[in-house]
Amino acid sequence: MRYTNEIIMGLAKTEIFSDQQNEIASFAKVFGHPARVAILQHLFKLNTCVCGDLVSEIGLAQPTISQHLKELKLLGLIKGSVEGTSVCYCINTEKWLEMKEIINQFLNQDISKQGDCC
Amino acid sequence: MRYTNEIIMGLAKTEIFSDQQNEIASFAKVFGHPARVAILQHLFKLNTCVCGDLVSEIGLAQPTISQHLKELKLLGLIKGSVEGTSVCYCINTEKWLEMKEIINQFLNQDISKQGDCC
DNA sequence: TTTGTATATCGCAATATTACGATTAATATT
DNA sequence: AATATTAATCGTAATATTGCGATATACAAA
């Protein structure tokens, strides 16, 4: 099969969308997996750094949790610091609020004007 | 490689998470792609059914748009109705509000108690 | 220094997702 | 009836994601 354009199969064509649209999608994607939702909820619940117990808490293998944490860290939603042999994680409040603002702006689009024509 | 448990590689282990966590993840996932963000924003902007012009508006091939619309319809976020040769789409307001409530509950977790210990 | 503990990384397997060309189906139009 | 238009579906290609075992790394304890 031939593609004349720069189409890389299986890869989202982010370049045709606005920065805002890509940003919304990136944030949504990161909590588009139940394990990452569970991790974030656990961090919120404890109100403090969580050191080590995430693996036993979530119920996935240690490398899998580590990978999910990496993705959350990459977007800046969590922070981590080494504490002896273990690593402690917590919510990055600034980034969380920034994300919340961006997602809310998307979710809170004025729905009242939507005609129910379909 | 052998797996004693019921691990199906590449598939999220949804069964170990709560319904709420899986629901949050499902909704987030669906707007975790810029094309679907763009489609939803366009539907909001027009305040009415959008018949046909989505392909030219978004800039992806017709089958690709059709596939994204299918995913949005599957979750119930949009409704479609046949209008002559074309199909008209609009936001499903009830489902949108339901989704908004669920995502907001997740985003609005009390961040004030988070100790900045990391 | 050796041993233990906790996390990260590597490598792999398998499914999921994204995208599009070709085709099909359904309805208008001529 | 033949043709045009529009959207859905099929098939395929290629990357992305998910998950875990094995290993590496880093630090603490004995």
Would you give an account of this structure?
Two copies of one chain form a homodimer. Chain A is built from five helices and three strands. With 118 residues, the first copy, chain A, is mostly helical. Chain A has one domain (17-104): Arc Repressor Mutant, subunit A, CATH 1.10.10.10. The first copy, chain A, has a three-stranded antiparallel sheet. In chain A, helix 1 (19-30) packs across helix 5 (93-107). Chain A is globular. The first copy, chain A, starts with 18 loop residues before the first helix and ends in an 11-residue tail after the last helix. The mean pLDDT of chain A is 91. Chains A and B meet through helix 1, helix 2, strand 2, strand 3 and helix 5 of A and helix 1, helix 2, strand 2, strand 3 and helix 5 of B. The structure holds a DNA duplex (30 and 30 nucleotides).
- Total beta-strand segments of chain A: 3
Rounded to an integer in angstroms, the radius of gyration calculated over CA atoms of chain A is: 18 Å
Poorly predicted runs of chain A are none
Main CATH class of chain A = Mainly Alpha
Q: Percent of residues of chain A in helical segments? A: 40-55%
- Whole-number total of structural domains of chain A: 1
The secondary structure category of chain A is: mainly alpha
Largest sheet of chain A: 3 strands, antiparallel
Task: Name the quaternary structure.
Answer: homodimer
Which H/E pattern describes the elements of chain A? HHEHHEEH
Q: So how many helices of chain A? A: 5
Task: Work out the strand percent of chain A.
Answer: 5-15%
The H-level CATH homologous superfamily of chain A, spelled out, is Winged helix-like DNA-binding domain superfamily/Winged helix DNA-binding domain
Domain HTH arsR-type (chains A, B): 16-114
Keywords (chains A, B): DNA-binding, Transcription, Transcription regulation
Protein name (chains A, B): DNA-binding transcriptional regulator, ArsR family
GO molecular function, one term (chains A, B): DNA binding
